[in-house]
Amino acid sequence: MKASLILAAHEWRRLRVQAWPWLLLAGVVAVLAWLFLSRLDTFLSLQDSTGNSLNLGASAQVAAPVLGWLAILLLLLVPLLGSRSIAGERRAHSLNLLLAAGIGDGAIVLGKWLGLLGWLLLLIALTALMPASLIGTTPLDFGRLAANLLALGLLASALAAIAVYASSVTTQPILAAALALLINLVLCTVDLGARAAKVEFGFINWLALPSHFGPLSEGVVASVDLVWFGLVTALFLALATRQVASLRSAD
Amino acid sequence: MDELSLDLHKGEVLGLLGINGAGKSTTLRMIAGVLAPDQGQVLLDGASLHEQPERGRRGIGYLPERVPLHAELAVAEFLHFCARLHGLDRRAADAAVAREIERCDLGEVRRQLIGQLSKGFQQRVGIAQALVHSPALVVLDEPASGLDPVQSLRMRELIASLRAAHGVILSTHLLAEAEVCCDRIAILHRGKLRHVATVQPGETARLEQLFLRIAADLDNPAEAAA
């Protein structure tokens, strides 16, 4: 575990000293800030015109939509951020450094995942500052906000594991990003057909990401949803570990 | 690789000699733990590295043919990471980085980004990362490859200086390099160990003849028969 943490800190440092992760981060925060201000403007206008007789809450009207948009952006952003984690190392022939360090394939994958997850948690924390800026000006539903942030954290965890796995199967970061995006897309749409056929509680629905992210982001924290995110994360980390292990027998 | 058995003692430099595709890099990658052998084992002080990878982590330093560097980091920062990865704590890592920067003559570039360094400096950073945790065994895959004559000379001097504290195994296809750096050479061909010889000063011609004979005999059976 110590080796994984050292590797995670190193991954963080490598992201920190490059321009493109900061540009992606800045771009996403700028888009979300614009959405936040736009929703806030609409919220204030509605309050002025109705005298808050509709009993609208800032958590539901302003914070939740912004955090919801972050979830959508994460689906696109994480494949890009994670695409180089292992593929880039293989391409630069620097994976040998880790393979020869005797730290274990699982520790390598865990370190890569933790480093990426740290960066994503920074993005979530920066976004959370937007609704937090409303504290003291209007009542906020802190329970729902906490559930929202939990949902985003779990989503980031699963998407980071998928990105690291995709990055372990190729030496081309662009292909890794495309594969991770494809897996994300499949997880989001796997039950579309079932829903169209009015099947809403089948196994296929359970497989779909929105079936678990939706309730969590609405404030309903159920263990089944937590387990789903945990399973997806563990599954893709295990697959990535297996993939890295297979590199030891390929020459 | 097949039927390969080698031993190395502390203070000794062993050179793996062979033409391209002989199996030098594969052998070194197995010793370093990058590749897992189908059969057989690598023992360090009698302990199997397959069963105790942690020993390898601390006991082996490896410089692959293509130097594994993180171009976006400064030299000292990268070496510190390598030291920590091999199990050194922060304080010990600081001291080790300072020592290797001194030994590998990297002082003037310690704060520069690795990606901006010349090939010679990058190779030295590669050697420094292999030495930073003071391993008992240093594995160097064509350490002088791609260097100009002056840089090659410095590299050979550096390798010779490692003898004092480490066992060194290196691969090369340059006989002159083997003669200068190595105490023994092992000639590989088509994945098999063909010959092991002690290197004596001024023996380049004999080694060259031996090396070419082994390669030619096996590459051209008809010529060998004639």
TrEMBL record, chain A:
Q: Which GO terms describe its cellular component?
A: plasma membrane
Which UniProt keywords are given for this protein, alphabetically ordered?
Answer: Membrane, Transmembrane, Transmembrane helix
Write one Pfam family the protein is assigned to. ABC2_membrane_2
Tell me where the transmembrane regions lie: 20-38, 58-81, 116-137, 149-168, 174-194, 226-245
Q: Name one GO molecular function term.
A: ABC-type transporter activity
Highest taxon, organism lineage: Bacteria
The protein's name in its UniProt record = ABC-2 type transport system permease protein
Organism of provenance: Tahibacter aquaticus
TrEMBL record, chain B:
Which residue intervals define the domain ABC transporter in the entry?
1-215
Q: Does the keyword ATP-binding apply?
A: yes
What PROSITE patterns does the entry give?
Answer: ABC_TRANSPORTER_2
Gene3D superfamilies, per database record = P-loop containing nucleotide triphosphate hydrolases
Q: Name one Pfam family in it.
A: ABC_tran
- Top-level division of the source organism's lineage: Bacteria
Q: Keywords of this protein's UniProt record, alphabetized?
A: ATP-binding, Nucleotide-binding, Transport
Molecular function (GO) terms for this protein are: ATP binding; ATP hydrolysis activity
**PANTHER family on file:** ABC TRANSPORTER, ATP-BINDING PROTEIN (PTHR43335:SF4)
Its family remark reads: Belongs to the ABC transporter superfamily.
Query: What name does this protein carry?
Result: ABC-2 type transport system ATP-binding protein
Q: Which organism is it from?
A: Tahibacter aquaticus
Organism taxonomic ancestry = Bacteria, Pseudomonadati, Pseudomonadota, Gammaproteobacteria, Lysobacterales
